[in-house]
Structures are given as structure tokens and as C-alpha cells.
Amino acid sequence: MRVLVLGGTTEARALYGLLEARTGRFQATVSLAGATRAPVLPALDVRIGGFGGMAGLRAWLETHGIEAVIDATHPFAAQISGNAVQACTQAGVPLLRVERPGWTPSAGDDWTLVPDMQAAACALGTVPRRVLLTVGRKDLLPFATMDRHDWLLRSVDRPDSALLPPGARVLQARGPFDEAAEETLLRTERIDVIVTKNSGGMATAGKLVAARRLGVAVIMVARPVLAPAPAPVVPDATAAMAWLDALHDHGASTLRDV
Ligand code: NAP
After folding, report:
1. Is residue 104 classed exposed, middle or buried when 0-12, 13-18 and 19+ CB atoms within 10 A define those classes?
2. What is residue 253's DSSP assignment?
């Protein structure tokens, strides 16, 4: 069965591992946006770069005879997920979305929930603060002219200098990050607020546990709402593999209840 995996996440990497062990059953191509400079590549067929919008993706599915698509992109990658829904609907290809559950606050957390990055910048307020900014290098514009705070920005690749808040220091690092190391970072840097996306998952949750312990505030940016009508959703690679097996063995009619 020819499968396209839209990747770029921890869950996608777990799925690559499962698919690498079953190349006799599934012929998978992994698609990456090309956003990360040195991505971790699987031992599967890989293509890198955009498809050219929804129509381009639909054409690619048809040209390559794709029989199933797994959208394992990041919860904040709303554009490609919307394109996948439309392209798969039009091409008649079954689509599954792998989406890790979002984080929710626990007792002792000091979270401010905001709908988007602009609101996160506003929520920092006017009093100077020491900020750990972990929203990724592409979402920095709302913070770019805020000169009253002390910024430590963490991202996999170094951001474009024009987007950096004044005086920001950059910590280039790729998760996972454990709780103890996160606590040390927050203490050493005397961070008093973290700004983060609600990415969910274990790999980057350590900072939230450390923040709870140290009484550090968190500004949490909500996930974008995916549109149009979403695909069926599973939380991890194992469940996605079970869906693929069911599709392979019994056909699309068995998948209605997923
Ligand atoms: P996005 O806004 O939803 O997508 C922008 C465009 O990038 C899409 O329209 C598509 O171009 C291309 N694209 C995105 N994912 C692709 C993929 N897997 N394969 C081929 N083309 C892809 O996405 P984004 O937020 O920029 O994220 C880009 C990638 O980074 C995603 O694969 C995502 O899983 C990963 N990522 C994102 C975040 C985040 O916070 N946004 C965090 C970690 C990882 P065309 O329209 O030309 O097809």
C-alpha cells in the first residue's frame, strides 16, 4: 500500500520507525516542509518542500498513486493540515491525523491562556520581565520590537536576526528537555515567565513541570482551530499503524468508526 506521511514531529518519527520495519506491507514516503535546517531523516523515501498548495498536494497524491495519508504534522501547522483534508477529500484518499493531546494546567500552575501570538505579547505587560520564549523561530514578529524585557529565546535553528526582540539571547537546542535540566535553566537564567505554544507531548513538557515547582508564570498560546472539517484523529504512532493495518486488510469501509 502506498502511504504518504506528512511529518515533522516526534509522533511522525515514531511512525517512521514502525513503517521502516514493514516495508513489505507499506511503501511509505515521508514529506517534510524543509523548515528545519538539519532534519532527522528516516530510512524511508523522503521528499522535502511544499507541494504548491492544496491543488499541488492533490496532484501529487494522484500522480504517485497514494492510497492513504497520515497527517502527523505539528498541532500549529494548520495550513498543511487544512490542505490535506481538502486534497484527500477531492482525490478520494483516506486521511488520518495523528495529534498529541494538548497540555492542561494542574494545581499550582500559574498559566495565562491566550488565543494567539499577538495576545501572548500583550499578556507580557509593561513591567520588565525575564522571559523564556519557546514559540519557534517563525512566530517572533509580535515580540520583535518589545525592548522592555530580557529575552532568552530557545529554538532548533537560529532565527532571522530581524525578528529577534532587542537584546535577545538565543539558545539553539533540540528537545527532548527533561525536568531537571529545565529547572536548572529557569533558575540560572532567573526566568520569571515562559511564553510557549500548547504543543502538547512529553518532549517539551519538562519546562511546565519546572515552572510549577519554581512558581514561574506561563503564557500559553492556544492551538489554532483546524479547518475545514478535520480528519479522524489518533494520539500516537501505534494507533496510526493500527489504522493503516485495518485499511490494508479490510479497506476504507471499516474505518468509519475511527
Ligand atoms: P504550515 O503553516 O501548516 O504550512 C505552511 C506550508 O508549508 C504548507 O502550506 C506547505 O506548503 C508546507 N508544508 C508544511 N508541512 C509540510 C510537510 N510536512 N510536507 C511538505 N510541505 C509542508 O506549517 P508550519 O507551521 O510552517 O510547519 C512546517 C513544518 O514544521 C510542518 O511539517 C510541521 O509538522 C513542522 N513543525 C511545525 C511547528 C510549528 O510550531 N508550526 C513545530 C514543529 C514542527 P505547500 O502549500 O506549498 O504545500
Report:
1. exposed
2. G
Instruction: Name the domain count of the chain.
Output: 2
Give all strands of the β-sheet with 217-221 in edge-to-edge order. Answer: 111-114, 217-221, 193-197, 130-134, 150-155, 169-172
Using the atom order of ligand 1, give the atom closest to the CA of residue 6: 18
For the chain (258 residues), the mean pLDDT of every run of 10, in chain order, is: 96 97 96 89 96 98 98 96 96 96 96 98 97 95 96 96 96 95 98 98 96 98 86 95 96 67
Domain membership of residue 105 (yes or no) is no
* Domain CATH number, residue 167: 3.40.50.720
Give yes or no: residues 213 and 125 share one domain: yes
Task: Measure 80 CA to ligand 1 centroid, in angstroms.
Answer: 6
Nearest-angstrom CA–CA distance, 102 and 167: 31
Phi and psi based region of residue 213 (left: phi greater than 0; alpha: psi -120 to 50; beta: remaining)? alpha
The residue range of the domain holding 151 is 111-221
The CA–CA distances, whole Å, from 74 to 91, 98, 161, 255 equal 23, 9, 24, 23
Residue 160 lies in a domain: yes
Amino acid at 35: A
pTM over 0.70: yes
> What is the C-alpha to C-alpha distance for residues 33 and 43, in angstroms, rounded to an integer?
17
Classify residue 244: in a domain, yes or no.
yes
Does ligand 1 lie within 6 Å of residue 100's CB atom? no
